[in-house]
């Protein structure tokens, strides 16, 4: 390994850390109180989950049922039918920057922070 | 590189292609605890082909590997195929650019190839799912490309040392 290799490796490590830091900051900055998870099947929304309620949901994927568990404002795919079970191996997800993609089942789960409408008078545009 | 007769060259490239297809198909069964991260063993054969033969042979080997392995697995033109193809196209381009500079060893080439393989897959995922959210996987893939690229680069170096001996 020569010095150019070392520069390249350091560049990749630094850019991955900077990229992660930027994304993390962006997600935290946009976090509001109400958090929902959107489940899509073949790019169509099939379920919207309120992350503040602990529960288990079942959606139909291409290869079978996909069990989604919500607990303590975190979400995971509890079990599913797929060749390598990567979705369930991924484990708990609580931030919007980590989508769960179950490719064999064509299921994508994304956590979204929705800004809650402020109570009181509506704004007036003149 | 030693001068090979056309027949010997064809035989060697075919053997490398067969091995790369085998690696490509066996790799998903290797247990790696991080989802979406693979060692990229098939890239070793691409790198060996580039250094032992030429750019054209490497490009052909990489593209044929993805097409033939996808045909054998029955996923041709499916999501998995496009993911592999996106990764291979990006990793091949960056490998060739860095190789032409003559400044990098197989370890550096492997790390860059691994990083851009991840980038290519993310681009394809964004195009398929029509959501930029997939870019959040990129830091993980880039970070993991250093150890995986280092391992495959070292294996390539050792194999090349023995082949050239």
Describe it for me?
The complex is a heterodimer of chains A (126) and B (165). Chain A has 2 helices and 7 strands. Chain A has 126 residues and is an alpha+beta fold. In chain A, strands 2-1-7-6 form a 4-stranded antiparallel beta sheet. The radius of gyration of chain A is 19 Å and the shape is globular. Mean pLDDT of chain A is 83; it is low at 116-126. In chain B, 76% of the residues lie in helices and 0% in strands. Chain B is mostly helical. Chain B has a single domain, classed as Orthogonal Bundle (Arp2/3 complex 21 kDa subunit ARPC3), CATH 1.10.1760.20. Chain B is built from 6 helices and no strands. Chain B starts with 5 loop residues before the first helix and ends with a helix. Classes of the chains: A alpha+beta (126), B mainly alpha (165).
Could you tell me the strand content of chain B as a percent range? under 5%
How many helices of chain A? The count is 2
CATH architecture designation of chain B: Orthogonal Bundle
End-to-end separation of chain A in angstroms reads: 66 Å
- Biggest sheet of chain B: strands, sense, closure? none
CATH architecture of the largest domain in chain A: Sandwich
CATH level-1 class of the largest domain in chain A: Mainly Beta
Give me the count of strands of chain B.
0
User: What is the CATH topology classification name of the largest domain in chain A?
Assistant: mini-chromosome maintenance (MCM) complex, domain 2
Q: Please write the string of helix (H) and strand (E) elements of chain A.
A: HEEEEEHEE
Q: What topology, given as strand order, has the largest sheet of chain A?
A: 2-1-7-6
Beta-strand fraction estimate of chain A: 35-45%
Radius of gyration of chain A over alpha carbons?
19 Å
Largest interface: A-B, 29 and 31 residues
Task: Give the overall average pLDDT of chain A.
Answer: 83
Roughly what is the average pLDDT of chain B, rounded to an integer?
A: 89
Q: Roughly how much helix do the residues of chain A carry, as a percent range?
A: 25-40%
Largest sheet of chain A: 4 strands, antiparallel
Shape of chain A: globular
- With helices defined by DSSP (H or I, 4 residues minimum), what is the helix count of chain B? 6
Poorly predicted segments of chain A: 116-126
